Amino acid sequence: MRPRSWWPGIVLALLVGASAFPFYWAILSSFTPEARLFQAPSLLPSQLVLDHYRALFSERNFWLPIRNSLIVAGSTTVFCVALGALCAYALARLEFRGKALLLGSILAVGMFPQISVVSPLYLLLRELRLINTYPGLVLPYLTFAMPLTVWLLVGFFRQLPGELEEAAMVDGASRLRAFWEVIVPLAVPGIATTAILTFVYSWNEFLFALSFTLGPERQTVPVAIALFRGQYQVPWGQILAAAVVATLPVTLLVLAFQRRIVQGLTAGAVKG
Amino acid sequence: MPGADPTSSIERQEARIAWALVLPAVLTILLVALFPLAWTVWESFHLHDLRMPWLGKPFVGIDNYVEAFGDPRFWAALGHTAFFAVTSVGLELIIGLWLALALNRAFRGRGLVRAAVLVPWAIPTVVSALLWRFMFEGQSGIVNSLLVDLRVLREPLVWFIHPAAAWVPVILADVWKTTPFVALLLLAGLQNIDASLYEAARIDGASAWRQFRHVTLPLLKPAILVALIFRTLDAFRVFDLIYALTGGGPGTSTEPIALYTFNALLQNLQFGYGSALSVIVFAITFCLALLYIRFLGAELTGARR
Questions:
Q1: A56 within some domain
Q2: Which CATH number goes with the domain that contains A107?
Q3: Which of residues 202-221 of B touch A (CB under 8 A)?
Q4: Chain B contact set for A262 (CB, 8 A)
């Protein structure tokens, strides 16, 4: 190997510091009394209080947006992974006419700017009386989540060795049984990674959730946080407490599955 | 296999199964994405103002587009979007490449680094926008305090009332959140480069800079292109970040095209005009996406079955 040099270590230390500082500052500030937030900030904790978290869950009922987000992101993920797995299997392992075109189109739809379908979706949901409902969010979420799921799963299914299902089929199993009994068990890690990424994307989505909800009863976490800001004052303590709470679940997921997530993200984009 | 007659019944059966498997997902995509997109185009040729339902929904041809192209706020929003895309993506590529090179050479602490770079990427954009707003907020927020202490600023700056200064937190927040993703893409590219090439270059006496210039960069070009196009597409539809960070302000001096479109649709309820703006955004990103598919799709569909 090449001689070790000093600079990678320093670059990486800088990187970790720069990534972590805003979190450190937000967590520290979320425990700081409101009156002291903008008074001679000190980088080290001094007087810590739980006021903001208490206010967040009692006055604001932050459980409500959390529940909304869990329901919407969860349903989107289940629906997309179920249908997406079937579609991705065919695209990854079967030969049929128009496959390349189909794959390209799905990829293209995944890159739509969301804003370009806000107007018809709004009119459609209004017509169906689905504005401010859970289905009224899940349906729009499919526009970006379905292509994402198919795309990631195709990448994972391609990596599996082809001989396995052929062996199963020689043994007399049908295509579908080979899929269900050989491929699916092997692909569980890939399917799980896909589900996590779809969930994270849906949990974080903002534009549709802002456009298709009317009030707090169906607002998701990002929308609720963005709309905390009052007309005359900004409750920074509560905003930061909410930010910490909103970040926690995705952070835990990402830390638990980091190796797989990196694999899924880069395999889809670089190697195909 | 184009042209070949699917003579064997097994092939025909396989194709039938394949279509049955892809159908549910494809129908969903048609219903929730392609059909609405066609509707947007149709809508954009009509006058449709939800505040004035008595006007009905008359066909107005390309009037909405003419209105957009004559609207200085539209051009300003387009300019802001392009400025944001070029600046943030440029910075992300440079810093991302530098990080990827460091990550590729580091022996210890990769797990920690991966965690540190993934977390900003995974949190909601709105949350990262608010974290940065908070740091730049106020006369004695953390950024102002530090910059005054370090004598970079003589007195605290009110970042969000200056049209130019307001861009600083916006760009920083985006760079902070998405550089990790760029670095990971480039790292994957770096790891695909055959180590023996460097060996050969060293034997020929090439300096570290020449190795980087003549081995790393050319071989990394595909990964750089992918990251570039992918990030440009993302930057062009920027919405959440600016909505939560500056709200497009001061005035409309940081308003991107997606936010302008959103306001036309859901604040002013001008669905015809807003749809025309949507179509324009779509057309721009579509051209960028075509590039992406040309580079990536060919590689993907040409790969083994």
A1: no
A2: 1.10.3720.10
A3: none
A4: 114, 118, 184
Can you read off the two tokens belonging to residue A86?
């079937």
The residue type at B288 = L
Query: Which A residues in the span 167-196 are in contact with B, Cβ-Cβ below 8 Å?
Result: 175-176
Residue appearing with tokens 């103002």: B49
Domains annotated for chain B, with CATH where assigned, are: 1-36 (no CATH), 45-108+178-302 (1.10.3720.10)
Peptide bond before residue A22 is cis, with ω within 30 degrees of 0: no
A245 and A154 within one domain:
yes
- Flag whether A109 is in a domain: yes
Distance CA B56, CA B42 (A): 15
Q: Is residue A254 part of a domain?
A: yes
Query: Which of A234-243, B161-170, B291-300 is predicted least confidently?
Result: B291-300
Find chain A residues with C-beta within 8 A of B225's C-beta. Answer: none
In chain A, residues with a C-beta closer than 8 Å to the C-beta of B139 are: 38
Closest-CA distance, A240 to chain B, in angstroms, reads 7
**pLDDT tens digit sequence for B93-113:** 999 998 888 888 766 677 777
pTM for this prediction: 0.90
Answer whether A93 touches B (CB < 8 Å). yes
Please check whether residue A57 lies inside any domain of the structure. Answer: no
pLDDT band at residue B276 under the 50/70/90 scheme: very high
Give the C-alpha separation, B14 to B208, whole Å: 53
Mean predicted confidence (pLDDT) in B216-224? 85
Write A165-168 long-range contacts (CB < 8 A, 24+). Answer: A165/A93
Residue A272 pLDDT level (bands cut at 50, 70, 90): very low
Q: Are residues A81 and A183 in the same domain?
A: yes
> Is B107 an interface residue toward A (CB < 8 Å)?
yes
Cβ–Cβ gap A251/B24 under 8 Å: no
- Domain identity same for A104 and A25: no
B24 touches chain A (CB under 8 A): yes
What's the mean pLDDT in B258-269? Answer: 94
Closest in B21, B240, B271 to A90, CB measured: B21
First to last CA, chain A: 29
Residues A113 and A220 in one domain: yes
In whole angstroms, give the CA distance from residue B12 to residue B18.
10
Subunit contact A16:B113, Cβ cutoff 8 A = yes
Average pLDDT over residues A84-101: 89
Number of domains in chain A: 2
Q: Where are the alpha helices (DSSP H) in chain A?
A: 7-30, 51-58, 63-93, 99-110, 118-127, 135-159, 163-170, 175-178, 184-204, 207-211, 221-226, 236-256, 258-266
Cα–Cα distance for residue pair A72/A69, rounded to 1 Å: 5
Residue A152 to residue A199: CA distance in whole angstroms: 13
Query: A194-231 pLDDT, tens per residue?
Result: 999 999 999 999 999 999 999 889 999 999 999 988 76
